[in-house]
Write a structure and sequence with these properties.
The structure is a homodimer of 412-residue chains. Helices cover 43% and strands 20% of the residues of chain A. With 412 residues, chain A is α/β, with parallel strands linked by helices. Chain A has three domains: 2-88, Arc Repressor Mutant, subunit A; 94-206 and 379-411, ATPase, nucleotide binding domain (Nucleotidyltransferase, domain 5), CATH 3.30.420.40; 217-372, ATPase, nucleotide binding domain (Nucleotidyltransferase, domain 5). In chain A, the strands form four sheets. Chain A has a five-stranded mixed beta sheet with strand order 6-5-4-7-11, with helices on both faces. Chain A has a five-stranded mixed beta sheet with strand order 14-13-12-15-16, sandwiched between helices. The longest helix of chain A is centred in the first third of the chain and has 29 residues, at 2-30. Chains A and B meet through helix 10 and helix 13 of A and helix 10 and helix 13 of B.
Chain lengths: 412, 412
């Protein structure tokens, strides 16, 4: 009997932590939410919700919000009395998100609610070794953490990589445009920081899709693709509301689709991959931007008002490659990230015509192209999301592994 | 109180029917299973299992099996006393499965347990109208039903189509190689039969993947692709154990991937699709089989012992196209169906070399190519599976819509 009772107790504790995490996720997604809405969303009674809210506040994860007059409280409020709300703590726990590109790294301190509190970036030179990139990223991490509120807990680090990341342990198996094979980049960054905090890695396009699905252009859309159009090109796929990962975590490598068997060699070793026709280097050549200034390509494209003729075939090739993507996954939304975003703004009709040229009619009819709802920050915010996942699984356990003196330790 | 009691009663009835269906699904998957194994698999006690087994027997869906001496009963049998078993009824309820190809239709009567009791096939001439194809299929259905045990209930019809089938209602939106657009083929077949019985439609490759996952080469494998290599080429995708359908049900149209921008025109209207390089017409040309004899291509390939040189580039193109498929979905198993099956047997090294040439290393390392475990019947058995799905959802309701005098009615 003792065993059974203990079992039941442990199970109850598990259920309570699960409910705490779920409630916190709702607060995170909305930024602020009424208790009445939480009662309705979670199917728990008011006193249970009040208990969970109290515990999250004690843990320093959320705080009381005055009754909102807008949409908050619309759930089941008692007549005329708006329900009290819960919101994330601005000066509270945070994660560090890293968006590692081929040409630059962006690092941000991100709180619950997905707010970017601080950001820093640096150019990455070509042919830099992984440990040097790790050191550069660590310096950016120190910078953004130095501005964190004192004693605010660092919950974890999320890192986006332009390559194939093994789902089981986050090992970077291959990042063709960085020249990496089997790089344990998470461990490299932690070593450079001399810090032991949970670190998670993901593929850039996968994380872009995740963030856009949670709080960007893809909210409420179950079948969507996020395309990262940078030096390399990849797809993050949400299908039936779930991330498509594949057996090892490597699904969505559409940048290496066969595009032209007579095309140029790709960094991956194959010939004529799609990204050789539409990646940053091809775009830079078309706008006559110096090859060593690819990092400035976004600004160059943003300044263009009348697109040069040389960009047209690239826009058409983006569309024709997207046709393969749409034929393969049948999404209802394709979000064009990276350099594809300004290109789509400049040459929407060329991209759309290329797509229409090769997409099967039923799939074409039901798909929409869009720019990211999160601007250039989709991938960065996706990196924050994977760093927060353990927090929503179990806030108590996550706070136990958090680092409360990160600011002073990293300042050292 | 009356309302609440009725509600609870309805809910209990729903749970019971759900359990009935789940138990039936276990019997279907295994053919024969012990009560002890069912107790263990379903987490229900022995008397509940006994009650459900009794009800399924009364419904004529299963029957008692003598205690098996082999693997059956291994679950939780009492010492020395093998547990009594349950098996499907051979002369019991059945579905009709239709595998409609571009060049031929195969129709089978399939019982619970996935056993093909009777089959018939006919060639389909090119440029035949949908209603003529429907009439030909109906004739085959009459034939296989004429051999059914008298009064055995016809539960439903499942139809595989080489095209894009809308997931909501089974409308054939587009079947390029049949020249079909928006054809309600299920209704056409039912009208030709003058019968009203549940009918479900699916894409050929999707159904091949489903059947191979349930009882073929892909049992227990969560990330797999079935490639239908026929006149057209398509992929059925299982990812994370679930069918990848896409927003409308059109995912997996990999036959229309861009393969060679300077290649021949495809039936879909695009140029250089993968299926123009590797589909049945390209294979027939390579082995100098007359274009109007594509229906006999399987036999021709089966007779070849030393493959002619002309087949080599086709085998390499199969591999190179599969690379795009593997890069896109990252499966751990690719099952080569249709004409790809004999080609793979003849030229495994050429296919494998083409795959290796373009697949990203981490995805290549973890993928295996295989021939179907169900031979040429994967798609046909997948059509039976979708016809059986409503039976496993609710056996009682399904028997209520079944037709018990199908044999005499169709004989008329």
């Amino acid at each position: 009997m003792t065993t059974r009772q203990r079992g039941a107790g442990t199970n109850q504790e598990g259920v309570r932590r699960h409910n705490l995490g779920t409630l916190l996720r709702h607060v995170h997604r909305t930024g602020e939410i009424s208790r009445a809405e939480l009662t309705s969303l979670m199917g728990l009674n008011r006193s249970t919700i009040a208990g969970l809210v109290g515990e999250l506040a004690e843990l320093g994860l959320t705080e009381h919000a005055d009754p909102a007059t807008g949409s908050a409280g619309a759930g089941r409020r008692t007549a005329g009395r708006p329900s009290a709300g819960v919101r994330v703590v601005d000066a509270g726990p945070y994660v560090v998100a890293v968006d590692l590109g081929v040409d630059r790294a962006v690092v941000a301190r991100v709180g619950l609610g997905g707010r970017i509190a601080e950001r820093a970036e640096a150019a990455i030179n070509e042919d830099t070794e992984a440990w040097q990139v790790g050191a550069a990223v660590a310096a950016l991490v120190r910078h953004v953490v130095s501005w964190a509120p004192e004693h605010a807990p660092l919950l974890g680090i999320g890192i986006s990589v332009p390559g194939l990341v093994r789902r089981t342990d986050g090992l970077v198996r291959q990042a063709p445009n960085l020249g990496w094979r089997d790089v344990s980049f998470g461990s490299i960054v932690l070593a450079a920081l001399d810090l032991d905090v949970p670190v998670r890695l993901g593929n850039d396009a996968d994380l872009g899709a995740l963030a856009e699905h949670h709080r960007g252009a893809g909210v409420g859309i179950d079948d969507l693709i996020y395309i990262s159009g940078n030096v390399g090109v990849g797809a993050g796929v949400i299908t039936g509301g779930v991330r498509l990962q594949g057996a090892g975590g490597y699904a969505g490598e559409v940048g290496h689709m066969n595009f032209d068997p007579r095309g140029p060699l790709c960094h991956c070793g194959s010939r004529g991959c799609w990204e050789t026709a539409v990646g940053a280097h091809a775009i830079a050549a078309a706008v006559k931007s110096p090859a060593d200034q690819v990092v400035r390509l976004g600004e160059v494209l943003d300044e263009i008002t009348a697109p040069p003729r040389e960009l047209r075939p690239i826009a058409a090739s983006i569309g024709r490659g997207l046709a393969d993507v749409v034929n393969s996954y049948n999404p209802s939304l394709v979000i064009l990230g990276g350099y594809f975003q300004p290109l789509f703004r400049l040459m929407r009709s060329e991209v759309t015509a290329g797509l229409a040229e090769r997409t099967m009619a039923p799939a074409l009819e039901s798909v929409r192209l869009a720019v990211p709802g999160l601007g250039a920050d989709s991938v960065l915010l996706g990196a924050a999301e994977i760093a927060l996942e353990p927090v929503f699984a179990d806030p108590v356990a996550s706070l136990a592994t958090a680092i409360t003196d990160a600011r002073s330790r990293l300042a050292g």
